[in-house]
Amino acid sequence: MNNVKRRAFLAGIASLALLATACGDDESSSDTTQAPTTAGSDSSDAPTSSAGSETTAMPMDLAGELNASGATFPKTFYEEAMAEFMSIYPDVTINYAGGGSGKGKQDLADQVVDWAGTDSTIKDEDLPGFKGGDVLYFPTVVAPITVSYNLDIEGLQLTPDTIAKIFLRQITNWNDPEIAAENPDVTLPDQAIVVAHRSDGSGTTKNFTTFLDRAAGPDASGIWTLGAGDTVEWPADTQAGEGNGGVAQIITSTVGAIGYVDLSDATDAGLNMALVQNSSGNYVGPTVEGASAAAGGAEINDNLTYSAIWADGADAYPITAQTWIIVYKVQPDAEKGMLIKAFLEYVLTDGQDLAGSVSFAPLPAELQQMAIDQLDQLEIG
Amino acid sequence: MSVTTTSHTPTLQERLRGKGGHADRSFRGVVYVSGFVVLAVLALIALTMFDKSRAALSHMGLDFFTSKRWNPPGEQYGVLSYIWGTVYTSVIALVLAVPVSLGIAIYITQVAPNWLRKVMTYVIDLLAVVPSVVFGLWGILVFAPHVLGFYKWLSRTFDGWPVLGNIFGPNPQGRTFFTAGIILAIMIIPIIVSISREVMETTPQTEKEAALGLGATKWEMITGAVLPHSRGGLVGAVMLGLGRAMGETIAVALVIGSATGQITLNALTSGNSMPAVITAEWGEADTLKKSALIAMAMTLFVMTIVVNMTATAVVNRSQKRMGVR
Q1: DSSP A361
Q2: pTM for the whole thing?
Q3: Stretch B41-70: mean pLDDT
Q4: I need a labelling partner for B314 at 20 to 30 A (CA). Which of A39, A209, B3, B38 fits?
Q5: How far is A287 from chain B (nearest CA, A)?
Q6: Residue A278 located in a structural domain
Q7: Containing structural domain, residue A74
Q8: CB contact under 8 A, B260 and A242
C-alpha cells in the first residue's frame, strides 16, 4: 500500500511537470496554476526528471471531486470500488447519492452530476433532454435477483410459469401439485404462500417483471399479464416492503413468504433461494457464476446496452440484472474528464475483482474488453 | 379617522407621521414585498405543477381522476384509489384523534392540578416534535407485527355486522389503512391538543364562574361555557390536524401496505395514499410517470387548500355567531 502511494506520488510530480508544459494555454484549474511553481522548484532535482519516464506506465496523480447519483441496485459495489479508488488516490472524492435510475438519468440530463448509475437504458424520447450531448454506456457488473422464500427446504426448483402464478396469487399454497411436480424429491408443507414485493418504484422490480414478461408473458406461455415496469399492479393480497431490505425482512419474519431480493441482501438475511429454470431448461441457482454466464449469453448492442435477463446459456441464471454507468461522451472539463476516465478504467479492470466480495458478478471477459475499448471514445478537454 | 386638532400641540398621530413618515413608508414597502413573496411562491408552485403535469393529464384525460388503475407498464395512471387512501386514512385518524385530543385538552385546562398540567403540556409538545419517520419505523417494526392479532380479533368479532363488518373486514397483514390511520392519529394528537388547549384557556374566567355560580357541575360548565366559546378554534385545530394527516408522507408510506387499486371500506386491508406513492415511486419514474406523479401532487395540493379554506370559513362563521371580532 505504502509503496503504491509513494510511486503514485512520484508519478504525480512528474505528471504535474508534464501538465505545466502541455496545458499552458488552458483556462487553468487550480492544479495547472500550481504546476509551474512546483515544477520550477523541483526542476533541478534529478529524481523528478527520471521519474518522468514512468508516467506512461503509471496513471497520473488525480485530484478533484466527482458527484454521481442513480441506481441503488449497484450502490454497494460502487461504494466498494469508490472506497478502494479513493484510497489509491487520496486527493479524489467521489460521491454516489443513489436515488434510483430515474433520478440518475435526470441528474445527468440536467448536468448536476458527473456520472450516473442506471439499470435501464434512456428512452429515445428523453434523449433530447440530455444537455451535454451524446451519452456513453459502460456496463459495470451484473447480479442475480434471487427468488427467496421462508420454508425449511433448500434449493426449491421453480419454473418461470410457476413463479408467475405464485406472484399472481393463482398458486396460494406450497403443496400445490404444480410445485410438487417440479420438486419430486421434496415433501412440501401445507402452508399458505405470502407474496412479498417492493413498495417503492425499483429497477429490481423492473428486472424481475421483465423476466416474467419474457419467460411467461404474452409471447411465451401467456400466464404473466402484468407487464414489466418499476411498479406493476400487484394483486392486493400481497405484501410490500421498502427496498430489498424491506422485502427480505417480510420474508424472514413470515413463514411461507416468497419474494424477489437481490443477492447481497438475500445473502445477508440468510434466506433460502430457489433454483430457477432458465431458457435452456436447466434449474440454476442465483450465483455470481450464473450471472456472469447470463451476461456472456446476452446479445450486446453497439452502444454496449444489453439485457442479461432470460439470456441464452446452459449455466445462465435467468433473472440476471445488468447495470451501467452513463457519462457524457464529450467532457469539456479536462480535470473531471480525466477523473471519470480513470475511475471507469478502475471499475472495469481492478475493480472487477471486488465484485464477488459484495455478491456482484464481474463482466464476462468479452464484454469487459468492449467496455475498456469504449473508454477511448471519451473526448476529454 | 380624521384628526381634528384645536390646540397647537400636535397629537400623537401627527407627531408619528411627521417624524417616522419615511421609515413608515419603507417599512410598509418591505412588508408588502414579504407578503407578496408568499403569494408569488404559491402561484409559481401552482404554475410549475400545472405545467409539468400537463403531459400526464392530456395523456389520461379525465380518467386520471376517475380511474383506479395505476399501471405504469401500460402507461395507465389513475389516482382514484390513492385519493381514497388519503381521505380514508385521514378520516380514520380524525375519528381516533379528535375525541382523545379534546379529552386531553379539557383535562389539562379544566381538571388537572397545576403541576400535572405543566408536565402534560410539556410531554405532549414533545410528542409534536418527534420526526415522522420515527413514527413510521416504530409502526413498521413494532406496531404492525404486534397489532395483527388484534386485527384478526376485530375482523372475527364484527364478521357479519352491518357497516362495522365491512370496516373490519378480512385481514391479511399488519400494514393496512387502519395502521396508517392509527399512526397518523398519534401524530396529529399533539397538534390538536396544543391548539385546543390554548383556545380553551381563552374562555373568560367570569363566564366559567357564572356557570358554576348558577349551580352548574364541572361537566355542565365545560359543555355550557368552555366548549361553545372555543368552538371556532377547535374546528380550526381539527382541520389543521386533518391537513397534516393528508400530507403526511413517510410514516404512511411505511405502514399503509402499498397496495394499488384499493377502494374499499375494509380498513384492515392494504392500500396506498397520494404522498406515499409520490415518494416511493419518484426515484425510478420515467418522464410520463413523473408527470403523473406531479399531477397527483397537484391534486393533493388542491385538496389541502380546500380543507384549509373550509376550515377558515367554519372558524369565521362560528366566530361571528359567537359575537367575537
Answers
A1: B
A2: 0.79
A3: 91
A4: B38
A5: 26
A6: yes
A7: 66-141+320-380
A8: no
